[in-house]
């Protein structure tokens, strides 16, 4: 409302801080809200007043968050009643404006709506700043009783409580968005790191593999083996960091498919036979003699857990044995199975006080163990997280100097053998030499070492590849000379692998379109999805093995021959 121009405008002593508090709510100029309108309706009813306002007092104006009996959104501050309310902590009341020299010449007193009565209580923040008012007006002189005044104060507290809730919710959303942004940046950083590390590791392991196929002296073979093992260790550490980052950000995905659990256990067992011989340890499988057990969960993640547990068992066991023990209890309805898979060793054991924190990230027994055996301390935390995502439990028991037992347990669905996606047997490349010679292979790869590596691998398999350095050169070659199989790096200058694939699939004649195989250091499931969505037929992550390349090409040749 208004004051006479003859009176100076009262300014609270903490005006700057008061305005900061007001602006922190970010309420001014927002749309009407029922939670505030209901409070003005209560005030109108209790105080029997035709005009009620929730006013917020800015530098030069009053803005109404909620209003009854007024058709404007705000008025200038220097002609308001409320400017006096915020300089005190109690209700400011004018019984008859015509008898008050500050308001008797006010236009709203002398003209419509002919205000006579005003009462306002400050909206006080928890920090003590009066950012506005809850006020009532009438066209007749009167005064509020104690019950009405108390109601105004209670309602003003509720208004501030709503302001605070809005502010806290906004801050929580902001924190969540910042966390999401930080996590996105973190994920992008790890993805970039993965690519930058995988690229040289791919070169190291690939060249090492080629070296191992040449005539080497025993000492040279030993050196090559050291390079290979350390390259694989670096790759393993990188994978641990990436997996833990995904678990932390809830971006880890589980792929539920049908598979033969017995085959998986055998595959894992065969992986470690060489380690057992190298360390002269007894290594055995003990359990139910089932020829097969078809279940439905994520075989790759279950294998990852088992590989981690068995790898740890061999790492921490110098003498004695390592074993994989398993029990299966098929339920009477034949739709579910309780599984228990234990990895036992006779190694150094784990102190009892360390067992409680064993599955925490970065947890290791002590610095001396860390120095001797290495590792990130992430493997068990990742394994437990993956187990929980599959509704399985991972537990541990251990006795110092006697060994440890890690157990995966839980109930998983059974599946039908018909649901298993069996890979067709791929032909031996030696039996299909003519097809090998006829196959036109194009490789787009910008890294010179990787160019040399893939060229050598393909030549050893009997192929004569053409190598180009980017997507533009690849598209020109396909258009002018054609290709049957196109190995495509994803992260390239000029034109990325994804962009190249999209152009091929969208604009190239189907009859000349090659079979596209992505070979990339971008190794996440999301990267694979992006590749396949762009029209790429197959995906292989770096570092890859010669056998993987051979399998992909043999599979392509077999399919091609079956159509002719």
Automatic annotation (TrEMBL):
It catalyses: ATP + protein L-histidine = ADP + protein N-phospho-L-histidine. Residues 440-557 form the Response regulatory domain. Residues 192-414 form the Histidine kinase domain. PROSITE patterns: HIS_KIN (PS50109), RESPONSE_REGULATORY (PS50110). Pfam families: GAF, HATPase_c, HisKA, Response_reg. Signal peptide: none annotated. InterPro entries: CheY-like_superfamily, GAF, GAF-like_dom_sf, HATPase_C_sf, HATPase_dom, His_kinase_dom, HisK_dim/P_dom, HisK_dim/P_sf. It comes from the Bacteria. Its EC number is 2.7.13.3. GO terms for cellular component: membrane. GO terms for molecular function: ATP binding; phosphorelay sensor kinase activity. Keywords: ATP-binding, Kinase, Membrane, Nucleotide-binding, Phosphoprotein, Transferase, Transmembrane, Transmembrane helix, Two-component regulatory system. It is found in: Membrane. The modification 4-aspartylphosphate is found at residue 489. This is histidine kinase.
């Amino acid at each position: 409302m208004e004051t006479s121009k003859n009176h100076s405008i009262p300014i609270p002593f903490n005006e700057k801080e008061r305005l900061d508090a007001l602006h922190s709510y970010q309420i001014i100029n927002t749309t009407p809200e029922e939670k505030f309108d209901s409070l003005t309706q209560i005030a109108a009813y209790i105080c029997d007043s035709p005009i009620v306002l929730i006013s917020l007092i800015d530098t030069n104006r009053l803005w109404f968050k909620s209003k009854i009996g007024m058709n404007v959104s705000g008025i200038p501050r220097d002609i308001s009643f409320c400017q006096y309310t915020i300089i005190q902590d109690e209700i400011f009341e004018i019984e008859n404006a015509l008898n008050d020299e500050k308001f008797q010449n006010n236009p709203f007193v002398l003209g419509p709506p002919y205000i006579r009565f005003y009462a306002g209580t400050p909206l006080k923040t928890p920090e003590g700043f009066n950012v506005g008012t809850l006020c009532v007006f009438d066209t007749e002189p009167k005064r509020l009783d104690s019950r009405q005044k108390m109601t105004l104060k209670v309602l003003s507290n509720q208004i501030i409580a709503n302001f605070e809730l809005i502010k806290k919710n906004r801050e929580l959303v902001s924190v969540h968005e910042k966390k999401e942004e930080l996590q996105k940046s973190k994920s992008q950083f790890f993805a970039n790191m993965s690519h930058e590390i995988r690229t040289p590791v791919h070169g190291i392991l690939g060249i090492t593999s080629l070296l191992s196929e040449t005539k080497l002296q025993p000492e040279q073979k030993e050196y090559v083996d050291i390079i290979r093992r350390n390259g694989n260790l670096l790759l393993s550490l990188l994978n641990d960091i990436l997996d833990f980052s995904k678990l932390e950000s809830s971006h880890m995905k589980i792929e539920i498919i049908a598979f033969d659990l017995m085959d998986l256990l055998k595959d894992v067992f065969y992986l470690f036979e060489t380690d057992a011989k190298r360390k002269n340890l007894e290594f055995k499988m003990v359990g139910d003699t089932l020829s097969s057990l078809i279940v439905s969960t994520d075989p790759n993640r279950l294998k990852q857990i088992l590989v981690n547990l068995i790898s740890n068992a061999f790492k921490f066991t110098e003498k004695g044995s390592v074993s994989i023990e398993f029990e299966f209890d098929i339920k009477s309805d034949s739709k579910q199975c309780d599984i228990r898979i234990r990895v036992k060793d006779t190694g150094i054991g784990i102190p009892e006080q360390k067992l409680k924190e064993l599955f925490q990230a970065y947890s290791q027994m002590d610095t001396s163990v860390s120095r001797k055996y290495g590792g990130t301390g992430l493997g068990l935390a990742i394994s437990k997280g993956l187990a929980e995502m599959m509704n399985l439990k991972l537990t541990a028991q251990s006795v110092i100097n006697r060994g440890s037992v890690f157990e995966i347990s839980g109930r998983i669905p059974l599946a039908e053998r018909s649901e298993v996606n069996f890979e067709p047997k791929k032909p031996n490349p030696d039996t299909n030499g003519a097809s090998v010679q006829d196959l036109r292979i194009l490789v787009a790869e910008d890294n010179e070492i990787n160019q040399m590596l893939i060229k050598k691998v393909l030549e050893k398999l009997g192929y004569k590849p053409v190598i180009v350095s980017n997507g533009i050169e690849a598209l020109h070659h396909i258009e002018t000379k054609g290709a049957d199989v196109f190995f495509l790096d994803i992260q390239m200058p000029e034109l990325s692998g994804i962009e190249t694939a999209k152009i091929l699939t969208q604009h190239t004649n189907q009859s000349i379109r090659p079979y596209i195989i992505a070979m990339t250091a971008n190794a996440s499931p999301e990267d694979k999805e992006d590749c396949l969505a762009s029209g790429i037929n197959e995906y292989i992550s770096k570092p890859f093995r010669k056998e993987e390349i051979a399998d992909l090409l043999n599979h392509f040749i077999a399919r091609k021959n079956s159509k002719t």
